[in-house]
Amino acid sequence: MITYQKESFKDLAIDAQELFKAHSAESSDRTDVLPLDMNYDAYFALEALNRLETYTVRDDGMLIGYTAWIVDHPMHYKSSVTATSTLIYIKPEYRKGLLGYKLIKWSIEQIKQRKVQRILMGIKPKHDFGKILERLGATYFEKVYSIVLE
Hints:
CATH superfamily: Gcn5-related N-acetyltransferase (GNAT)
Largest sheet: 5 strands, mixed
Strand order of the largest sheet: 1-2-3-4-5
Shape: globular
Distance between the termini: 46 Å
Radius of gyration: 15 Å
Helix content: 25-40%
Number of strands: 5
Structural class: alpha+beta
CATH class: Alpha Beta
CATH topology: Aminopeptidase
Low-confidence stretches: none
Order of helices and strands: EHHHEEEHEH
Number of domains: 1
Number of helices: 5
CATH architecture: 3-Layer(aba) Sandwich
């Protein structure tokens, strides 16, 4: 049975070690220079400050996907609150059908309860799920380029 729930990042970190590695292998570039090295202390600190929201999807208790959001006041708009997606992943074998759409939709509904004014989600070119976000009311906002220095 598929379930969606809010979880602490500490609980996610325990279950997600292999998923974090798979996520990084699939979506990161230049891992020769920038290998996966999760800053768990930073995530835990954000969670302690109530600035991190973590949601998971499980199949009969087995972790199959997650989203994590940083909720903060942007530097240029200190009177508003923005939720920025920092992690989103679903195991490849679960990407068919509507599960990804449902996880994103459900997590957006949850994050709205934080009274945010803007939701931002970055998309990697090789895993472009922009059409799903557009179905949920998102509009194209920004393009980001990366320069990896050796």
